[in-house]
Every structure is written in C-alpha cells, then in structure tokens.
Amino acid sequence: MIAPARQAAYRILFEIETTDAHSDELLRGREVDALSEQDRNLTTALVLGTLRWQLALDTQIRDLLARPNTKLSPEAATALRMGAYQLWYLDRVPAHAAIHDSVELVKHGRERGASGMVNAVLRKVGQTAEHKPQSSSSAALAHPAWMVERWARRYGQAVAERICSWDQEPASTALRVADPGTEFADLETEPGAFLTCARRVVRGDAGRSAAIRAGQARIQDEASQLVAEIAAAVKHLRLDGQSPRVLDTCAAPGGKTAILLERLPRAQLTAVDVSPRRIDSMRKLLGPASDRLIFEAADAAKLQLRPEWDRILCDVPCSGTGTMARNPEIRVRLTEADLRRQQARQLEILRAALPGLAAGGRLIYSTCSLEPEENEDVIAAALRKAPGFHVISVAKILDDLAANGVVTPDARDRLRSAAPGNFLQTLPGVHPCDGFFAAVLERRQQTS
Q1: pLDDT recorded at residue 95
Q2: Number of structural domains the chain divides into
Q3: How far apart are CA 260 and CA 315, in angstroms?
Q4: Domain range for residue 58?
Q5: What pLDDT is attached to residue 368?
Q6: What is the pTM of this model?
Q7: Same domain, 260 and 361
Q8: What percent of the chain has pLDDT over 70?
Q9: Is the pLDDT of residue 191 over 90?
Q10: What share of the chain is helix, strand, coil (3-state, %, to 5)?
Q11: Nearest one of 277, 319, 326, 329 to 15, comparing CA atoms
C-alpha cells in the first residue's frame, strides 16, 4: 500500500511537471485537506522540498542512470526526484519506504515498464550518500545558473548565495493582525520584523488557526504588507474634508487591498482585477469590509482613466523571483527571455494607470521580483514618456511610517539597506521576508 502523503505529493508534482499548475493552489486542494495533519505536513514537505531541489536532483540522478542522456518520462522523473529527495534530505524517512512507494507509484501509472529502472536508480541513491550536492558546490544552490550569475553581478556573490540559501528553506509564515494585541490560542507567534501589525508564526498551523478563520488575522508576507503600508501612507493624501479616491489596479488576491481599507477608512476605493473568479475570492477574504469597495473586472492594461485618483496601486504581475521560497517551481519554469515579456505587460499597466493620477497624486508600482527589467527599468521607460511625473524617495516614506508607529523604530534602521536610493527592494536572506520592489511616482502640481 502506498502511503497517502506520498500518493498525494506524487500527483501534485506530476501535475506541476505536466501543466502550468502552481504548488500553493494544489496544496490547498481537497485531496490534501482530507489528509491527517501528519500526512498534510509530509505532503507539503515532499512537494516543496522536491521542487526546491529539483535542479540539483536532476543533475545527480542523471549521473546514476545507465545511459545518462536518456529522456525520462514525466512519471519516472517525478518518482525519481521525490524518492531521491527523501533519501538524501529527509533523515527520518526510512529508505525502504521511500523506494517502495516510488516504485509502486510508477507501477500504478502509464509508465509501469519504468518501475525497474526507478527501483535500480533509487537503490543506488540510497547507497551513495556522497552524491548528495554539497554546500560548496554550484549544484547545491539549486537555482538556474543564469539566475545566480545575474544576482551575483547585481548584488554580489555573497548576497546571491544568501538568496539561494533562503529559497532552499521552508518559507516562514507572517500574519497581518488588525489589532496588535491579538492573542492566538492555537499558534505561537513573535513580533514581526518590520511592522507593528505583523506577527511571525513560530509554531502551529496558521492555515487552520481559529483566529484566522474568524478574520482576526490573515496570512501575508511582511514585505507584501510593507508595500501596502507605503501605498496607504496618508502624508500628501487629500484630507481636506473630501474623501480621497484610491484605485487598486491589480487587486487580487486582496491582501494589499485589505490594508488600504484598514488604513484609509474615509477613502472611496475601487479594486480592479482581470479575473471575475479572483474578485469573488477577494470578497470572501475581505468579508464585510468588501462592502466598502467598488469591484471592477477589467484588464488593467486597457483602463481608460481620467486624472481623478489621489492614490493608485499597481502591484503588477511579475516573474516572482522574490518569492521562490514559497513558490519553488518558478525556478524550473522561468527563462531569462521571460523577463522582457513580463516587462512589456508591466509597462502597459503602468502607462495605462499614470494618466489617472490627479495633480499631486501618487502611484505605487510594485513587484515581487528581484530583476531590474521588471523594476527600475520599467520606471525609467515609463517616465521617459511621462514628463509630468517624478519619483518620490521611499526612504522618506519609511521615516514617516516609523514616526507614525507603523514601522517599528529599530526596524527602520534595518530597512535602510532595503531603500538605499529612491526605491524599496527587500532581498530574501538579507531581509527576513520575500523579495519585493516598490517605487512611488507623483504627478507634479499644476503651476499657474
């Protein structure tokens, strides 16, 4: 009999291998939810661990094949990766269980003829611990060479290795709490790294916490929260008796929108997303607070805006290279050429949004990318054709947030490394969070 956790993990990994499915969505599916807590934890560990180490695993497995150039079927490749990951990286998993279940998974599929090869290779894996990638080797970084090389050029080799090391560990869970005094009976938490309304989970299953189910908190990375706090900063926002108008152009899944609602209770807030299904999910996430929102299903790149918005948030789709600790499949799917394609879409969205700013209004452009093509280069390209706009220093906004008690005083000092110039750029491993970029653009006041 195949262990339920391995069976569920294999199906998820196979689907990721053969489709464009995402691990975070599949791990929240019905099959996983029906498992016991112990099996859910093992399924998650197997899926995310195998994906994190996939590039290194493939290199080592290839050397153990009778014919290293053999093209493996998705079934065989998935079983070998998952089995080798357990044998090399999970000390508490019995070798016989990992090998047996991997072989049986192939036997029960369409490529049952490959079961003998899977058995032979995994037995070699179990006997050759020296094949496990060592910490000093390039394979141990388990990221595409082009990705590591560009990070080393941009941030230095030591920082590039810190980013890779961060990506190889289970992602930490951060919470957003409406009340800093919130207590969790079923979670052990500690203060956030940056924000007074953030908590970091030390122990417990946040996804099943009663406080989260009751809407007292939600799971949201602290860098994501920080971007929303920058967008919601009230300084220079119209507070002269009129309700400020705020537009969130790429609103789903809704975490940043929720912070805008929380921080700007008098604002007229409109949330736009291209997907009606994702808008429905936002309504569920926000609960009664969604009644304060105007929802619009539309393509942000095709918006026809008049200059009437005081604040616009453009949290645009991106490569996600700053989130690979929690989305490890990105590294095996993304190519360097994809960055330019992402940039074209991002420029369309930003150029469509800028005309919507009122005089003195501010637009916050953000990504969860570490790549200049999606960040500084987008801002520079947009401003070349938008002479009426200029960049506002994020560092000054962080000072304001610290003065207002949103950012903790000691965190402001630590965040100076994330805002050395005009922009925000958090780096995984350097900062204890995902990698996010943010830029603030302001429309110049008209002069008579």
Answers
A1: 92
A2: 3
A3: 13
A4: 4-136
A5: 98
A6: 0.93
A7: yes
A8: 95
A9: yes
A10: 50, 15, 35
A11: 329
